[in-house]
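We give this protein:

***
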Amino acid sequence: MRRVWLLTWCCFVALPFVPLERGGAQDAAVLRMASLAPSGSGADRVFQQFAERLKQYSGGRVRVRMYNGGVAGDERDVIRKMRVGQLEGAALTSVGLAQIVRSVLVLQLPGLFTSRGQLERVRHTLADDFAAQFEAAGYVLLGWGDVGDRRIFSQQRIAAPRDLLRARPWVWREDPMGAELMAIIGANGVPLALPEVMAALQTGMVDTVTATALTAVGLQWFRFVKYMSKSTGEPVLGATVVRKPWFDALPAEAQSGLKRASKEVEVALAAQVGREDARAAQVLIARGMKEVDMMAQKSEWEPVLKELARRLTGRVYTRELLERATKAARSPSAEGR
């Protein structure tokens, strides 16, 4: 997918307010939606299918206008535009979602999941909780869309927490989890917005990034690193949301059609991105990227991740939410999926 996120960050556009679009015998509500997926990518093709199905399922009452490739700005910009009514929806990563509902970051807690099946089990268990929290914040959570497996890419070999002490790791500026992890380890994380990472890698300001293989390929970050951690089965979270006032104003048929199209896209997107992320990892290995098995140092990572979970409890998510997530992840029915 040349990354679900090959960005043209510099092309920031101001989006006009266009609530209705004339077409056929009736007015059609316009769903202006932002995504970091570039035109022609696998994710873009899935979103095109979404637009076609939504038009069909809503009886032509909702049409989609996509703003791909990051032209609507980074996720902070996109959320601001949704809040002022310049956008109706967006496909966001966990960092963007957490700017709306902070507790969603419990689903990104390192070490909580070792398979996509576990994540799906936890999301199913907590579905009503998150739906209610997003609605309280003024949004409707339409569906999830994970963006690949989380890995560490680095110029020097990173296997154990202590290896980060001699590295210059990037920390996403809006991500409290990454900053706290570096603080526990004692590493000097470099806080940057996503669009700033490429220049930082080029200049050596950072030499270590956490990303999916798809991201590393699509954003060309792989050109500045030599090592890639093996997948531990921890997906990077994503989801699609729309503004609740806009959703509530739709006719019942259109609301039903939007939910139906979103669920179908959720399944298609997960399969598409999973395949492309795995393919991207194989491409990197073929190009000489060296894989590092961080699980060989599991005994050193476990106390660090346990402390991270403790520190974030009460600040990012409640203890009760963490306990429910942990119980669902460890359920026998979630293992081996």
Observations:
- The chain has a mean pLDDT of 86.
- The chain is about 40% helix and 15% strand.
- The two ends are 25 Å apart (CA to CA).
- The chain has two domains: 20-146+237-278, 151-233+283-334.
